[in-house]
């Protein structure tokens, strides 16, 4: 069984500088040494998914650059084909050439004669546009081709005309060779073994190896496979959000991950991540950068913005609202509470970005936030004075998809968790108003909750036994957001995790609500065998559109996000620890709350540790297995042909590394994790069982 798990679900192996991760559908190889860092993705078309294609892709953090060879699954004679590409073990190596060209070489095998279309090269964003949306940028295509008897080279000159990338495929076959057909852009690749080489001239980032990333007290983590994988995303320049889609800086991901990883990070790593935030801040107004666009796509954006003179100068976007509120609480936790941050604030804040010190920039960020907080602090009588996402944006917090907030404008996490916790360190007079008054705007008394739950189960074709009418129902739920007119988006959600993580004085009622929300689905968010859902629209009785908007297939629907589970787990731990202080919160004296909280924490711990995806993957969803009457895990691509492909490594999913096993819970299971058995897995399982029987 162990073998099956390793092989078919998340197989992880480590050899020198190479990590292999294989989430359900495809293989990812993470390579890093002192010359280069690269992620190789090899996937095979999945009949259930349009997003998983047969392709060979290499993505580099340097300039967020990459190359993609997409295989054509139709032969020139119209017949289908389904080739299998496999990386040759031990073949990946870095390469450095003249004129600052660096990159990756390696080998793969092809089991049958195949065809690739014109490679997409340059920015990972260009690769994504093509892979996710089929968008081809005519101005970003390889223009140089060099055919030799046994090789084909593609040369792409970046839009800045200074950078270029070469992608070469060569074979040692003696009979059949790769053949490029210029009119169609197709290359015939005969079955066999290929050497590939991808080089380009953008300087590599400076790696933070795992022993520099993790603080010295936690040497036990240096051999931990997840810590090593996390290190692929950490550099002295910045932390990367995830691979292969997001091998670049994202403010929220960096800030939240650093906050949650604080207990295990070294000073050097923490300050690298925080420095990257300052370096990308809007130095005029203190806004924090959401996403940086670098490399070829920066040139593209600058040209689109009619500023070609900027060349490949990074483009920073400031469209998010939540990110602005996350810097100061992180600085406070690090410099005031962590041994690693002790006595380091002065030196850190003296660092400079241009002509300004970090201290000066921080003051701008503080003033920005105080400006946002003032209206409601002055007049808390109306929701309209709460903090809204930006006027021209459908998104503004971590639920960063157009329907993520259910068309709300005033997000719960910002208004109920972030603003008040920010004010704790700056303006306690404002804080009191926010703490006392903001939450009530999000209170919803569910209408006909029992009926609503029953109908919701019916709509999802789930057995009515999952909810018994004699069960109690919550008297109040907390809305996910408020719409422009102040009406609540009636969706139960996991953003209570932000309060648990960032607040010190939550009320007894709040803690009771946390317990309510952590009850089993559909009443609450906890789905046995799968995880804690980020959204549950079951109580929206009046307007059941949200039952579709927040479906299990939606990116921010009724699915699980790893970092949310970990944040909730660590948040509860943090709250329980407050009970040992002299100035403990009131609820600490309520034994039923404390013991229920410990129980909920153990349940969460169990569901997390039973799922091998929980410490690495970004998000997953579920299905209900009628035969076993159990919920089972499904990857997004297994559920929807349109689902966005999930990253195999995601910075904030690794925060689980910093979570402690809660005291008094059953220990981590050592048996095979409970997993959703997909048809493919089942088929392979049968084969393996048959094989075991015979051998
Ligand atoms: C794949 O190859 C077939 C046959 O040569 C061709 O008709 C088709 O356009 C190709 N598909 C793509 C997406 O290039
Ligand atoms: C290579 O990189 C170094 C360091 O950035 C730079 O000084 C040098 O000019 C570069 N050489 C070329 C040929 O671009
Ligand atoms: C890249 O390809 C171009 C055009 O084929 C060639 O002139 C150049 O030498 C190649 N550079 C590297 C580093 O392979
Ligand atoms: C489970 O049973 C329900 C009806 O009881 C049905 O609608 C649903 O499609 C079944 N699910 C699967 C995966 O077969
Ligand atoms: C239900 O909610 C959706 C999404 O917020 C909205 O577009 C629609 O107008 C609402 N319907 C009613 C009847 O309120």
UniProtKB/TrEMBL annotation:
Superkingdom: Eukaryota
Alphabetical keyword list: Signal
Signal peptide positions on this chain: 1-15
Name of the molecule in the record: Uncharacterized protein
């Amino acid at each position: 069984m162990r073998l099956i798990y390793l092989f078919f679900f998340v197989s992880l192996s480590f050899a020198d500088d190479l990590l292999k991760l294989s989430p359900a559908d495809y293989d990812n190889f993470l390579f890093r040494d002192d010359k280069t860092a690269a992620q190789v993705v090899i996937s095979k078309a999945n009949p259930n998914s349009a997003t998983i294609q047969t392709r060979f892709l290499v993505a580099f953090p340097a300039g967020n650059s990459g190359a993609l060879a997409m295989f054509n699954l139709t032969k020139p004679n119209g017949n289908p084909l389904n080739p299998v590409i496999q990386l040759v073990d031990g073949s990946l190596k870095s390469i450095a050439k003249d004129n600052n060209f660096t990159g990756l070489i390696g080998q793969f095998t092809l089991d049958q004669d195949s065809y690739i279309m014109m490679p997409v090269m340059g920015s990972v964003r260009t690769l994504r546009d093509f892979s996710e949306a089929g968008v081809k940028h005519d101005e970003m295509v390889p223009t140089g081709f060099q055919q030799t008897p046994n090789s084909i080279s593609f040369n792409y000159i970046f839009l800045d005309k200074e950078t270029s990338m070469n992608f070469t495929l060569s074979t040692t076959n003696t009979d059949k060779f790769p053949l490029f057909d210029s009119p169609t852009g197709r290359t015939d690749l005969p079955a066999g073994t290929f050497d590939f080489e991808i080089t380009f001239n953008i300087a590599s980032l400076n790696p933070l190896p795992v022993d520099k990333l993790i603080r010295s007290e936690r040497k036990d983590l240096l051999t931990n496979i997840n810590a090593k994988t996390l290190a692929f995303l950490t550099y002295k320049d910045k932390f990367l959000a995830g691979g292969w889609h997001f091998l670049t800086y994202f403010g929220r991901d960096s800030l939240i991950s650093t906050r949650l990883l604080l207990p295990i990070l070294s000073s050097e790593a923490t300050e690298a991540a925080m420095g990257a935030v300052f370096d990308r801040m809007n130095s005029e107004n203190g806004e924090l950068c959401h996403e940086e666009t670098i490399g070829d796509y920066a040139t593209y954006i600058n040209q689109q913005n009619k500023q070609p003179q900027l060349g490949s100068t990074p483009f920073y976007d400031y469209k998010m609202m939540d990110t602005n509120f996350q810097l100061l609480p992180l600085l406070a936790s690090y410099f005031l509470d962590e041994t690693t941050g002790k006595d380091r604030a002065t030196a850190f804040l003296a660092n400079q970005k241009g002509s300004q010190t970090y201290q000066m920039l921080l003051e701008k960020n503080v003033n920005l936030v105080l400006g946002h907080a003032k209206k409601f602090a002055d007049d808390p009588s109306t929701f309209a004075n709460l903090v809204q996402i930006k006027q021209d944006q459908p998104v503004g917090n971590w639920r960063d998809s157009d329907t993520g907030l259910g068309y709300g404008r005033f997000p719960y996490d910002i208004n109920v968790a972030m603003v008040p916790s920010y004010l704790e360190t700056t303006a306690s007079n404002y804080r009191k108003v926010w703490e006392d008054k903001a939450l009530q705007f999000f209170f919803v008394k569910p209408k006909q909750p029992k009926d609503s739950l029953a109908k919701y189960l019916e709509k999802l074709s789930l057995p009515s036994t999952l909810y018994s009418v004699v069960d109690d129902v919550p008297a109040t739920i907390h809305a996910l957001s408020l719409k422009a007119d102040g009406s609540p988006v009636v969706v139960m959600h996991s953003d209570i995790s932000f309060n648990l993580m960032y607040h010190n004085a939550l009320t007894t009622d709040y803690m009771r609500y946390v317990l309510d929300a952590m009850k089993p689905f559909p009443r609450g968010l906890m789905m046995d065998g799968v995880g804690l859902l980020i959204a549950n629209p079951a109580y929206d009785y009046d307007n059941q559109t949200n039952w579709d908007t927040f479906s299990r297939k939606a990116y921010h629907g009724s699915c699980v996000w790893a970092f949310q589970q970990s944040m909730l787990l660590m948040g509860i731990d943090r709250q329980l620890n407050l009970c040992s202080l002299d100035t403990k919160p009131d609820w600490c004296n309520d034994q039923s709350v404390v013991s229920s909280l410990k129980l909920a924490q153990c349940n969460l711990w169990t569901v997390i540790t039973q799922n091998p995806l929980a410490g690495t993957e970004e998000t997953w969803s579920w299905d209900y297995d009628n035969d076993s009457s159990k919920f089972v895990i499904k990857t997004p691509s297994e559920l929807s042909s349109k689902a966005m492909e999930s990253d195999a490594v995601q910075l904030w999913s690794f925060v689980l590394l910093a979570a402690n096993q809660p005291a008094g819970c059953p220990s981590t299971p050592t048996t095979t994790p409970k997993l959703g058995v997909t048809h493919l897995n089942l088929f392979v399982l049968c084969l393996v069982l048959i094989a075991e029987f015979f051998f």
